[in-house]
Specification:
With 175 residues, the chain is mainly α. It contains 6 helices and no strands.
Length: 175
């Protein structure tokens, strides 16, 4: 996924991507470093606390990396791409780790979008979205995210209940 993102950023990004090659590389190396180090830790010394904060770390790193690539390769009026990419992290977070992580991904995506469009000085020149456009994009993203978090979160809870039921039936049949 990271390779695809890099390729798309370089091929379809703005013409000023050449000045962003070093930051893009640093961002990619940082992302791969976090993923590889958490993978190594989980394989060797997983500990109970790692199961709680590693998914949050991975969700946050996904959002930071995606936002960084959009920031470094796109003008501010195209920062809505952060919200589009954020749907992927949010959906995977809620489906695999629960509503808390999906909500975290949605919140971090909104914060990253607002940081890139309002706070940071643009890396690629271009018009900034209007305040009304920002409000519309954030509101639309929040509504759709809420629906998806609820839907995928309840699916996960139903699957967990089904697993528990199957275990109870298995023990009952064995007895």
């Amino acid at each position: 996924a990271l390779g695809t993102l890099v390729l798309l950023s370089l091929v379809f990004g703005a013409s000023m991507v050449a000045s962003a090659i070093v930051p893009l590389t640093v961002l990619a190396v940082a992302y791969v470093g976090v993923v590889m180090s958490t993978s190594w830790i989980l394989q060797h010394e997983p500990g109970p606390t790692s199961q709680t904060w590693f998914p949050s770390l991975m969700v946050a790193m996904d959002i930071v990396t995606l936002s960084g690539y959009v920031y470094l390769t796109s003008p501010p009026y195209q920062a809505y791409r952060i919200l589009l990419f954020g749907f992927l992290s949010m959906q995977l977070g809620v489906f695999y780790f629960g509503r808390r992580h999906g909500s975290l991904a949605a919140l971090l995506t909104i914060v990253a979008y607002l940081m890139v469009t309002v706070v940071l000085v643009p890396m690629v020149p271009g018009a900034a979205p209007t305040n009304l456009g920002l409000a519309f994009n954030v509101t639309l993203y929040a509504i759709i995210s809420t629906v998806l978090i609820h839907t995928f979160g309840s699916f996960r809870e139903r699957m967990d209940a089904l697993r528990v039921y199957c275990k109870v039936v298995e023990k009952g049949e064995a007895a």
